[in-house]
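Sample 1 of the test manifest.
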Amino acid sequence: MSDRPRRIVIAITGATGAVYGVRLLQHLQHLPGMETHLVLSDAAVLTLHQETGLQRREVEALAHVVHKVRDVGAAIASGSFQSDGMVIAPCSMKTLASVAHGLSDNLIARAADVVLKERRRLVLMVRETPFNLAHLRNMTAVTEMGGIIFPPLPSFYHNPTTIAEMVDHTVARVLDLFGIEHALAPRWAGMKGAPAAAPDA
Ligand SMILES: Cc1cc2nc3c(=O)[nH]c(=O)nc-3n(C[C@H](O)[C@H](O)[C@H](O)COP(=O)(O)O)c2cc1C
């Protein structure tokens, strides 16, 4: 049994929803035995600022290790670097396309390529609406390669009252995919009572 830290690569790309990456980093920052490796795309720096008001350095301060998106010589660019997988949160259609076609044209796409080839867990929080056929085909290709397409779609059955609750509910499901403990969102325990009008049996 390895005593290395649990390593998760987190990439934030320029799709809307930068807060998902931020919340992941915030949760993992102080979790014992965890080591996050962060890569921000250039477009992510824009969306982070637009959507959260955070500067690059403030987001990078949430990670244990930071890599530059053009540094394809970084540790996470090699399969010999052992990690538990990678989350792209959120994942733009551009980065999805790059991963789907194995382009490895920057460190995010290369790290994802490595995670796929090493058969580790890759979660793409893809975000666009509506989808065109290229998007759909690229999602299918990543799924066929073993990646997990995880659009950050909010759920309503837990009766959220704030955006933060909606975000955390989604982030919690991503953490579940890696078996990482959290108390970000309550777990479903069945319906709260009989519906006002029960459907016919
Ligand atoms: C405010 C803003 C929101 C965006 N939202 C999305 C989005 O939801 N999905 C997407 O695929 N691209 C979106 N884009 C466009 C991407 O940022 C753009 O395609 C960029 O080249 C992606 O590069 P990256 O994957 O290297 O981050 C958005 C851009 C901006 C400025």
